[in-house]
Amino acid sequence: MGIRTVAVIVALIPAISHEALAQQPSPVRAAPSAEAPNDARQWHVLMGENWLVDGLFLGRHTQAANGGGFGDNMVIADFWYDATHRRIHTRSIQLGEVDDPADLRLGRAPGVFPNRPDFRSSHQPGTVVGHVGFVTWNRNGFGAYFAAVQGAQLNENTGILCLSTAPGVPGRTREGSRYKPEELVCHVAIMPNGDVVIGYNTDPAHTPRVIIRGDLIVTGRIVEEGR
């Protein structure tokens, strides 16, 4: 019954050309992806008001379009399933549950994008599996991440939580790899045992400071490293 219901819902969505999309009065609209116009499995789906996301936009929205006039950076949408990048754009999300915590679960599988997960492989320690990030706004629309809360897997059972920012200048992590000014760097890490590491992957040449604008209350010991 569920499969029939889904099939009926999909059948009711008008599949239209890029040129006709803007003229459709339906609250739910669909249009083919510019990179796979003949693949019915890759349709854009739109609902409500979608600023700039019209037939002209979708006809030029490709994998290489991001950062330009037809990329995700230009979009403010009530609801748009972006078939090109396989992601959803919307304005706000509110999650609620009954007698159970509301979940927002982020995960990453090794393999080949988009549909070939490798169940025999494991992530390298420190692999970022997901993040909740904040982006800039400029004359070209939305920009790169400048800050994020990231989760990095250490082994099959544990990981770390990172508070990361883009330093704005190039540098080198404590592990020795170089990063660009716009790349996120984990500065504060919460380890599996509860340890909080400040300067976790910060460039050693720019040691971070801890600035407290208030009281510092310590109920345990202050231990010098190595003792």
Describe the structure.
By secondary structure, the chain is mainly β. The protein has helices at residues 2-12, 18-21, 55-60, and strands spanning 28-32, 43-51, 76-82, 87-90, 111-112, 116-117, 127-138, 141-153, 159-165, 171-172, 178-179, 185-190, 196-198. Strands 7-8-9-12-13 form a five-stranded antiparallel beta sheet, with no helix packed on it. The chain has a four-stranded antiparallel beta sheet with strand order 1-2-3-4, with no helix packed on it. Strands 5-6 form a two-stranded antiparallel sheet. The longest helix is centred in the first third of the chain and has 11 residues, at 2-12.
Descriptive labels:
227 residues; mainly beta; five-stranded antiparallel β-sheet; four-stranded antiparallel β-sheet; 9% helix
Which helices and strands occur, and which strands form pairs?
Elements: H1 2-12, H2 18-21, E1 28-32, E2 43-51, H3 55-60, E3 76-82, E4 87-90, E5 111-112, E6 116-117, E7 127-138, E8 141-153, E9 159-165, E10 171-172, E11 178-179, E12 185-190, E13 196-198
